[in-house]
Amino acid sequence: MTDTALFAPYSLGPLTLKNRIVMAPLTRTRAGDGLVPSDLAPAYYAQRASAGLLIAEATQISAQAQGYQDTPGIYTPEQMAGWRKVTDAVHAKGGKIFVQLWHVGRISHVDL
């Protein structure tokens, strides 16, 4: 099965993925205080870096975007620093990672 296109590199815009395997986003609800990615997150994603592309879990874009407990954000300096640890760990393993930006709409504002 090594001759299949699944394991061949793939150009995605300016990125070259090492294969065509993509890990879909999985909401893990393990963010810590301040909705910062937990200390487990860098290892979790680095262990999966052999996929061509990782799509990180749904990550809220503002405090008003949150609809579920313990989901990470990416709108404070502390949250961005937490995601930096994740991306550094993935890049150290030769992986590529995108984040799924998330706003839950009416779930977070039931008066709408």
From TrEMBL:
<dbReference type="InterPro" id="IPR001155">
    <property type="entry name" value="OxRdtase_FMN_N"/>
</dbReference>
<protein>
    <submittedName>
        <fullName>2,4-dienoyl-CoA reductase-like NADH-dependent reductase (Old Yellow Enzyme family)</fullName>
    </submittedName>
</protein>
<dbReference type="GO" id="GO:0005829">
    <property type="term" value="C:cytosol"/>
</dbReference>
<dbReference type="GO" id="GO:0010181">
    <property type="term" value="F:FMN binding"/>
</dbReference>
<dbReference type="Pfam" id="PF00724">
    <property type="entry name" value="Oxidored_FMN"/>
</dbReference>
<feature type="domain" description="NADH:flavin oxidoreductase/NADH oxidase N-terminal">
    <location>
        <begin position="6"/>
        <end position="111"/>
    </location>
</feature>
<dbReference type="GO" id="GO:0016491">
    <property type="term" value="F:oxidoreductase activity"/>
</dbReference>
<dbReference type="InterPro" id="IPR013785">
    <property type="entry name" value="Aldolase_TIM"/>
</dbReference>
<dbReference type="InterPro" id="IPR045247">
    <property type="entry name" value="Oye-like"/>
</dbReference>
